[in-house]
Each structure stands twice: as C-alpha cells, then as structure tokens.
Amino acid sequence: MKKLRIDILSDVVCPWCFIGYTRLEKVLGQLSADKQLQPEIHWHPFELNPTLPAGGEILNQHLQTKYQMTAKQRRQSQQKLTELGNELGIDFQFTADMRIYNTRKAHQLMMWAARSQQQTSFQKALFLAYFQEGKAMDDTDILLDIAVAQGLDRRDCQRVLADPGWSSAVVQTEQQWLEAGIQAVPAMIIEQHILLCGARPITELHQTIDGLADTLPSLH
C-alpha cells in the first residue's frame, strides 16, 4: 500500500466544496485498489462568512449583497450546481428561503474530529444536512446531533464548542492558510506540494493522482 496525503480547505456552506470533494471521492474509489493507495484526508477550516450573525441570512439576499448577483444570475448558478450535483448523486435543494450561516462552530468540531480520524464522515454529514436537508449550520444542537451520529462524543463536542480556545484555533489556522496564499475554496493540496484550486474535473483529478501514485513509496 502507498499512503496518499490530501489536505482540503473548505467551508460546509460552499456548494463547490461539496462537488469538489465528491469528485475526489469518486476518483479515489477508482484508483485506490488499482494503485494500492491508502488515502489520508485532512480537512482545514476556511470560513466564507465569519461575520454573519446568529441565524444567518437569506442566501439569495446574501448573494445579491456580497457578489452583486442578479436574480437571473442566481437562478442560472443554482441550476448549474443542481445539474452538476445530479451527475454525482448530490440532491441540492436551493429554495427561496434557504439561509447561509456562520460556520465557526462546525469548524471547531471538524478540528476536534481529526483526533479520532472522523473528519471526513462528519464533513460529508454536514454537507448533506445543509444542502439537502436545509439544516441550520450555526445551531449548536443540530451540530451536536450530527456529530454524535458520526460517532463523536456529545460531551466532548459540547466542551469544544464552549472553549474559546477552539474558536481561536480556527481563526489562527485560517490566517495561516491565507498567508500561504489560499484565497478561495475548495483548495486541495496533494502530498503537500500539488495545489488544486476550485472543484477540478474528474478527469483532471484522475490524471493528477494516477500520475503521482507511481512515484509514492510503498508502506512496509
């Protein structure tokens, strides 16, 4: 077997992050057996909207204010995302009353989940809860329920959310990535030296990882 490290910067309310990871997952499913790969995925925080107040705001209003998107542009963008999602088995549910949230708490729990190697299952559950079920990503009880369903301990998670040190850790980690030149997500860093920005096509991911696999040392 060959260990393959992949670092992913993302935000749970970023639809392109959901698409980008799902494409990667499919490629890894294709290549892991053929190339004897043992993927190690490490998730890192990147808040798109760290200043949003509790309860967030209506997504369409947010897109209009932050990105100056017209109603037509929003519809076209969400239709494109829906179509791309359908190709991957993602059922995006963009509704008129869909909200976007501050995700600091989710990132605190994501950092904690690294200790028990449960980041990826937790991240996928968050994506599904937000984009398919419309769950509030800043609601403590909702986040705790999702975490527990993925095998995390509720009391540990409660302590993480109550500890300002974990909130500071998220901010400090994000600042380090910004200083390293990461300005948008998703961003994937493969084997700590290949940077892929944006939701890359499956063919590109396949070619990149396939070519790299032959250079990796075997585990003994």
Automatic annotation (TrEMBL):
Coiled coil feature spans: none
Domain DSBA-like thioredoxin: from-to ranges: 6-209
GO MF, one annotated term: oxidoreductase activity
UniProt xrefs under InterPro entries: DSBA-like_thioredoxin_dom, Thioredoxin-like_sf
Pfam hit, one: DSBA
Protein name: DSBA-like thioredoxin domain protein
